Amino acid sequence: MPKLSDVAHLGKAVTDSLQRGAPDIDMDTVPKMLDLSAEGLTDNVIAVNANTGNQRQKLVMEVLVRHLHAFASEVALTTEEWKTAIEFLTKTGQTCSDIRQEFILLSDVFGLSALVDILNHPKPEGATESTLLGPFFVEDAKTISLGESIASEGKGEPMLVRGRGNPIMRCMIDTWETDQDGFYDTQYTEYENDCRGRLYTDANGRYAFRGILPVAYPIPNDGPVGQLLRTMHRHVFRPAHLHFSFVTASSSLLRRFISGVTSSSRGRHISVDQLIGSDAVFGVKSSLIVETTRVTDPDEARRLGFSSDSFHLVEYDFVLLTKEEAAFEQAKVRHAASSRIVHPQVEVVGTSVALRSLP
Ligand code: BEZ
Ligand code: FE
Q1: For residue 177, which ligand has an atom nearest its CA?
Q2: What is the value of pTM for the model shown?
Q3: Residue ranges, the chain, pLDDT below 70
Q4: CB hemisphere CA count around 293 (13 angstroms)
């Protein structure tokens, strides 16, 4: 079993990297790769990746390599295009900071985030669907009592949001939304916690809070992802919506779901209604669309704590799965995925690698 470190007269660069932890592998297990054709190249990259003891990593890398190579071959990727892609990814990385994640945005506009969410939060009939978390969630939202406002005065048109869990008492709800100008609090240079809050359902699973009517807004589009969308002639807008995160914990049970509600005020915000069907990041689901109604009743408005005579009303109930139910649904998706995959079995024979597809 000759290892690389068994070879006499290794240069300093090789011994240094072995000392730093580069794998010192049995060279007999490495396929001899010379004069590879496009097809042989793919099989051999998969073969050299196959030594990992982590079966999930092995599977993910195998399929990734196969699809990446198939993509390049199918479009006959030019060197220029490949360079453009590398430059684009470089700029995407350079645009990331503590408060900006351009790679997640890239994943969002490709629909990858929406797909990962669908795969990881399958929902049986009747359960509340999840959707994109988005980049504007923060952990330090102020905690409010039931009925209190998450928005300071003058941030937008008053809105009451209320509903019930299935029933879940003491469910922690985080909610966040744009102000009337279409900005989240974190987008202002002087960040001050506003238009977001944390509250808990009562003993009957009920919740209520005051906020403001959210408006449509653009996803961040002043970086490479925005530039890409311009070249694709794609718009950058999300319909008006309110984010919800639901977390419950009892002694032995933790339930966590992220969800969103898209609010539509028919008649008043026609353009907003149009955006519901063309969200820039593919996050809208019919089951999450909620109609807002306008309540004009000065006494009721005052009783609820509004300073105006009227307010928008959103009523929204949610149904969460238990941790076990969620794990069961996820296992079904994973099982279906792994049974679709055909793994090539690699045999190292002398100096060549034979690949065989198992049924
Ligand atoms: C959001 O809804 O906050 C969001 C989601 C994805 C990209 C940008 C914003
Ligand atoms: Fe949002």
Answers
A1: 2
A2: 0.81
A3: 1, 249-273, 340-359
A4: 6
Residue closest via CA to ligand 1's atom 1 equals: 134
Contacts 24+ apart (CB under 8 A), 183-186: 183/217, 184/136, 186/99, 186/136, 186/138
Contact 215, 156 (CB under 8 A): yes
Q: Which residue's CA is the closest to the ligand 1 atom numbered 8?
A: 219
Residue nearest to atom 7 of ligand 1 (CA): 134
Q: What is the pLDDT of residues 227-263, one digit of tens each?
A: 999 999 999 999 988 998 888 865 444 555 555 555 4
The pLDDT value recorded for residue 259 is 52
Structure tokens given for 67? 């699809």
Taking only the tens place, the pLDDT of each residue in 309-323 is 999 999 988 888 777
Question: Rounded to the nearest whole angstrom, what is the distance from the C-alpha of residue 315 to the centroid of ligand 1?
Answer: 22
Ligand 2 center to 146 CA (angstroms): 23
| Pocket lining: 238 vs ligand 1, CB cutoff 6 Å | yes
- From ligand 2's centre to the CA of 27, what distance in Å? 52
Question: Domains in the chain, start-ordered, CATH in brackets?
Answer: 4-77+348-357 (no CATH), 102-321 (2.60.130.10)
The CA angle 145-319-310, to the nearest 5 degrees, is: 50
Whole-number CA gyration radius for the chain: 26
Report the C-alpha dihedral over residues 328, 109, 194, 267, rounded to 10 degrees. -100
Q: Which positions ≥6 away from 158 have C-beta within 8 Å?
A: 210, 212, 213, 301, 306, 307, 308, 310, 311, 312
Which run of H or of E encompasses 82?
helix 79-95
- Separation CA 7–CA 18 (nearest Å): 12
User: What is the distance in A from the centroid of ligand 1 to the CA of 11?
Assistant: 51
Ligand 1 pocket, 219 CB below 6 A?
Answer: yes
Could you tell me which of 152, 329, 157, 141 has the C-alpha nearest to residue 244?
A: 141
Strands 289-291 and 254-264: parallel
242 lines ligand 1 (CB under 6 A): no
Ligand 1 pocket check for 196: Cβ under 6 Å: no
